[in-house]
Design a protein that fits this description.
The complex is a heterodimer.
Chain A lengths: L5 E10 L2 E11 L4 E5 L6 H9 L6 E6 L2 E2 L10 E4 L11 H11 L4 H14 L15 H13 L5 E5 L7 H18 L2 E6 L2 H7 L2 E6 L2 E6 L1 H6 L4 H6 L4 E3 L1 H8 L5 E3 L5 E3 L3 E11 L2 E8 L4 E7 L5 H5 L5 E5 L6 E2 L7
Parallel strand pairs in A: 3-8, 3-9, 6-7, 7-8
Antiparallel strand pairs in A: 1-2, 1-4, 4-5, 9-10, 11-12, 12-18, 13-17, 14-15, 14-17, 15-16
Chain B lengths: L4 H28 L17 H8 L1 H34 L5 H13 L2 H16 L8 H27 L2 H8 L4 H29 L3 H6 L7 H8 L6 H26 L9
Helix pairs in contact in B: 1-11, 2-11, 3-4, 3-6, 3-8, 3-10, 4-6, 6-8, 7-8, 8-11
The chains are: A alpha+beta, B mainly alpha.
């Protein structure tokens, strides 16, 4: 196997009495678009800062391309970061911001300018070089931050919720652009986000963080279709959790099971229940159904035929729900529990 | 907030009265420096620049002005270095007694000048003079620096607090050594705060009289002390007026500049 771009082993970090990172082992391959997904406070940003060198781990090691960098300062590591607040230098122009990494590494003025302009072109900001960051919009600043990191041609680019401050439309556009840029430059991206859509759409692999640990690592499909723990099932997408007696009645087995809302159909046969709520959401409608077996299920249906008038009348209606056995995922217990 | 018409007007009147009370006497000094009458008869009958010429040719006043400038620059230099260093220590590092240090730095500006003066005087006499360093200009500079540090400290602290560490982290992330980060990022973002703090420090030092009285060595006379000594000599009164007028302009200028530079967050606590 090739040497991984990043290898973390036994990584732990405590702040006072709080254990932010509670033992992480992870390998990220060269050229991978890797996402760290988790709620705030799950330790994903701390892991990113440990890789960048802004924090020293309490225990464990960080290796970049096989070299142990655990004790090295940020400026001695071949990684660059795109910060959540962008951290653009306000007293420098856009091109000076982008050139900064080359300047401190004593790259000649002419080459510096050329590579800076190229980086600005990559992020589609050609001609903006002489502006001050304060004269740019949020999306433009985000791209300056990206160009400033990319111009150094690092082996690894760390992105700390870089799209968090953008509005929805811009965010979706930047997701596509980021993915494209990553494919073009071919370097490893480590992307921290709390937005599961973002993680699923952009990544080659996703690590789901839960209370300082990794609950599951896998492709977006694996994480979504085969959640390893109830936490993953609940955090990545919506999930109907079946436990206890309801699980026994509905699946014939004991344990904990997850069924995704879009895998369930409302029909004439299957488990009986009552519609408790109908939520119209544009392309889809969500039905909340209380099953007689004692579980509350969310069902998502595409609005292909449904008229809105008919939807209102569904509330309180008796329905039956069916799903395929293969969509019932048995999940283990949360490690944190 | 909305106020009734009556209270709005009465507040305006109170404010106008307050400002008049502060600034009319100052204006009077300026006007009198051009008053042709030796006893400052009011209203002034004729306009003259005689006193200004006299003041310019007054060797004592010029020496005193020069001494004040040297003392101010010296105290400001010390304040800039120490104030910045302490601000960094307090804002960027956690250490035992951090809050105490912060308090001890700010305290001298609140202490009565007479106490600082007496304390420095006896310290200089009993500890430093025996080491061979008598009182002189240097002791004045040290005395002024004790409270000038505060203005720089407050300005730099406010700036550091506002800018946070993310710019420095970004710089380090892009490969800059700590020295480069200070030169290219930290210092430029602090520049206006340093200028504002420095100007205030200079203004504080320039008009100081109490601490100066206790710390000045023989033959060292700053401008405020010269004024004080010449105030009651009838022959010198017109010249004192001119010097006071110059002082007003010289003290207002740096404060005005400092305010413009520091913006709204300037926490320059002047007593």
């Amino acid at each position: 196997m090739k040497t991984p771009a990043i290898a973390l082993s036994g990584l732990r970090k405590t702040f006072g009495a709080v254990e932010a990172v509670a033992g992480i082992d992870l390998e990220i391959a060269d050229g991978e678009f890797f996402s760290m997904l988790g709620p705030s406070g799950s330790g994903k940003t701390t892991v990113l800062r440990l890789i960048a060198g802004f924090e020293l781990p309490t225990a464990g090691t960080v290796a970049l391309s096989g070299r142990d960098v655990t004790r090295l300062a940020p400026f001695e590591r071949d990684v660059n970061t795109v910060f959540q607040d962008y951290a653009l230098f306000p007293h420098l122009s856009v091109i000076e911001n982008v050139e900064y990494g080359l300047k401190v590494r004593r790259v000649g003025r002419r080459e510096r300018r050329q590579r800076g302009e190229e980086a600005l072109e990559t992020v589609r900001l050609k001609g903006f070089g002489s502006r001050k960051p304060s004269a740019m919009s949020g999306g433009q600043r985000q791209r300056v931050a990206l160009a400033r990191a990319l111009v150094n041609r690092p082996r690894v680019l760390l992105l700390d919720e870089p799209l968090g401050a953008l509005d929805l439309k811009l965010r979706e556009q930047m997701q596509v652009e980021l993915k494209q840029i990553q494919r073009d430059v071919g370097i490893t991206f480590v992307f921290v986000t709390h937005d599961q859509d973002e993680a699923l759409t952009m990544s080659d692999r996703v690590a789901v963080f839960d209370a300082g640990r990794i609950a599951q690592v896998g492709t977006p499909e694996q994480v979504y279709e085969r959640p390893a723990t109830p936490f993953v099932a609940g955090f990545v997408g919506t999930s109907n959790l079946l436990t206890g007696d309801a699980a026994q009645t509905l699946t014939g087995r004991r344990g904990a099971f997850s069924v995704r809302p879009e895998k369930i159909t409302i029909g004439d046969e299957g488990a009986p229940g009552t519609v408790a709520e109908v939520i119209y959401a544009g392309p889809v409608t969500r039905f909340v159904v209380d099953l007689d077996a004692g579980a509350r299920m969310v069902v998502v249906e595409q609005n292909r035929r449904t008229g809105t008038a008919a939807l209102g009348e569904m509330r309180g209606r008796r329905v039956r729900l069916t799903w395929h056995q293969e969509h019932v995922i048995e999940i283990g217990a949360d490690r944190a529990a | 907030m909305t106020l009734s018409a009556w209270s709005r007007w009465s507040l305006r009147v109170v404010m106008a009265l307050g400002l008049l009370f502060i600034y009319v006497p100052l204006l009077l000094v300026l006007v009198n420096s051009f008053n042709g009458d030796r006893t400052f008869g009011w209203p002034p009958h004729d306009f003259t620049t005689r006193w200004w010429t006299a003041a310019w040719n007054n060797g004592g006043a010029r020496d005193a002005l020069w001494t004040s400038v040297k003392a101010g620059l010296g105290a400001t230099a010390i304040a800039l270095v120490l104030g910045t260093m302490v601000a960094f220590a307090v804002q960027r590092f956690k250490f035992f007694g951090r809050d105490t240090v912060s308090l001890l730095i700010v305290l001298p500006i609140a202490l009565p000048g007479i106490v600082t003066g007496i304390a420095l005087d006896s310290a200089w006499r009993s500890v430093i003079a025996p080491l061979g360093l008598g009182k002189g200009l240097f002791s004045v500079i040290v005395g002024h620096a004790t409270f000038c540090v505060v203005t720089v400290y407050n300005n730099v602290l406010a700036r550091l607090r506002r800018s946070g560490v993310s710019l420095e982290e970004a710089s380090a992330d892009l490969g800059a050594s700590p020295g480069q980060t200070f030169r290219y990022i930290t210092f430029p973002t602090l520049r206006s705060a340093l200028l504002a703090g420095g100007l205030l420090a200079f203004a504080l030092s320039f008009d100081e009289i109490i601490v100066t009285t206790f710390t000045a060595g023989p033959g060292i006379q700053t401008l405020p002390i010269w004024i004080f000594n010449n105030l009651f000599r009838p022959n010198q009164a017109p010249v004192v007026n001119v010097v006071a007028a110059v002082l007003i302009v010289l003290s207002v200028l740096p404060v005005w500049l400092a305010q413009r530079l520091a913006g709204p967050e300037a926490g320059a606590s002047r007593t």
